[in-house]
């Protein structure tokens, strides 16, 4: 009888695992179709990426296409800034919220399941993007309208070509460089 119970329990656990993996895979595919596959930024380069931006405690930081929110969570921890992360993948957003709560940062940092084109970036002092170039180019018109003068956009991996005149620094690293733009 005990063997049967253990067998049924292991079948149920396996079924739950397979359902989770399937749903997770579907949302990764969905993220890719929407224009930004989930590719986490390596943790060992995050400090190098954020340091040139000179983030302060009273700044508002946005991470568009936030995935697990590692950039925003690091900025909140190191610079004590407030912020919001936006991603279309509800599983990654849920994971980001769990990690934020474990780090006790939920009062200053939040994550939302939302299309990045629906995110309001008017409060942003800093925006971090690690998006495919086509998606970033589509965001330029929206950011030109919404971002306040002095806001800094940190584009990891791909330059924002329409903003060549706003580029003030390039961090050259392998495998991806990072580009810093200041809105005027």
Structural key phrases:
Rossmann fold; 2 domains; 7 strands; alpha/beta; 184 residues
Number of helices, counting only DSSP H or I runs of 4 residues or more: 5
Name of the CATH first level of the largest domain: Alpha Beta
Question: What general form does the structure show?
Answer: elongated
User: How would you characterize the largest beta sheet?
Assistant: 7 strands, mixed
Produce the secondary structure layout.
Layout: H1 2-33, H2 46-50, E1 60-64, H3 70-79, E2 82-87, H4 90-102, E3 109-113, E4 126-129, H5 133-146, E5 152-156, E6 167-171, E7 178-182
Parallel strand pairs: 1-2, 1-4, 2-3, 4-5
Antiparallel strand pairs: 5-7, 6-7
Protein architecture, described:
With 184 residues, the protein is an alpha/beta fold. It folds into 2 domains: 1-33; 43-182, 3-Layer(aba) Sandwich (Rossmann fold), CATH 3.40.50. The chain is 40% helix and 19% strand. It has 5 helices and 7 strands; from the N terminus they run ααβαβαββαβββ. It has helices at 2-33, 46-50, 70-79, 90-102, 133-146; strands at 60-64, 82-87, 109-113, 126-129, 152-156, 167-171, 178-182. It has a 7-stranded mixed beta sheet. It is elongated, with a radius of gyration of 19 Å. The chain starts with a helix and ends with a strand.
